[in-house]
Specification:
With 225 residues, the chain is α/β, with parallel strands linked by helices. Helix content is 40%, strand content 22%. It folds into two domains: 2-123, 3-Layer(aba) Sandwich (Rossmann fold); 129-222, Arc Repressor Mutant, subunit A (Orthogonal Bundle). The protein has helices spanning 10-22, 33-42, 59-68, 84-92, 105-118, 155-166, 174-182, 191-203; strands spanning 2-6, 26-30, 47-51, 75-79, 97-100, 129-132, 135-138, 143-146, 149-151, 172-173, 212-215, 219-222. The chain is elongated. The relative contact order is 0.10.
Length: 225
């Protein structure tokens, strides 16, 4: 997932972002409310982790602005304010979950994954089992099956295949892959994508590119088979 973290405690910000990246997520982070709102409204995220008390613009204002604009991205509020009224106001402002400080990172990660499973984004249930032709991807178990055989992929390879499968039937550009799988924001001509696509094709037995097709000058596509 691509996650936006808005947290003004610099040590906590770094701790959370490092943990999310170790869990194979892509993370954008800031410690400022106005910059957080700018990122939230100009980039596409699968989830937002939002501190309630922020400099320049508080978390509830950011949340209300997003919901007022029709943005239903899942948001987990972080706050030292733990009274019932505080939690209720956060949820009524549009928060999907509310986590009281201090908290364990494992709980935060579990809550993010729970939101993902519930498919809160766009109000629809997210698929957790993707299939096209002889290829199957189990997102929760992080398993890849080709012709009934389990295939072992490295984390980056799995994330690459997951993104392509989630956008089945759409041309995925190199820039999209760099931003959502590698967390790069530059150099769309980077050879890192071509190298990983080649390795991925070999591992899933796609030497003829019948599954992952190259769209010359644009990117790649997995078509519904």
């Amino acid at each position: 997932m691509k996650i936006l973290l808005i947290e003004d405690d610099k040590r906590l910000n770094e701790y959370i972002s490092n943990g999310l990246r170790e869990a194979a997520h892509v993370v954008d982070r800031t410690d400022d409310g106005k910059e957080g709102l700018f990122l939230a409204t100009t980039e596409n995220y699968d989830a937002i982790v939002l501190d309630r008390m922020l400099p320049s613009l508080d978390g509830l204002t950011i949340l209300k602005t997003l919901r007022g604009a029709g943005d239903n991205v899942p948001v987990i509020l972080l706050s030292a304010l733990g009274d019932v009224d505080d939690r209720v106001s956060g949820l009524r402002a549009g928060g999907d979950d509310y986590l009281i400080k201090p908290f364990s990172f494992s709980e935060l990660l579990a809550r993010i994954e729970a939101l993902y499973r519930r498919g809160s984004m766009e109000g629809i249930r997210q698929e957790t089992h993707l299939k096209t032709g002889r290829l199957e991807v189990d997102l929760l178990g992080r398993k890849v099956i080709v012709d009934g055989v389990n295939i072992t992929l490295q984390t980056r390879e799995f994330n690459l295949l997951e993104y392509l499968m989630k956008h089945k039937g759409q041309v995925v550009t190199r820039t999209m892959l760099l931003e959502h799988v590698w967390d790069y924001h530059f150099d769309p001509q980077s050879k890192v994508i071509d190298v990983h696509i080649s390795r991925l094709r070999k591992k899933i037995g796609d030497s003829d590119a019948e599954i992952i097709k190259t769209v010359r000058g644009a990117g790649y596509i997995i078509e519904d088979q």
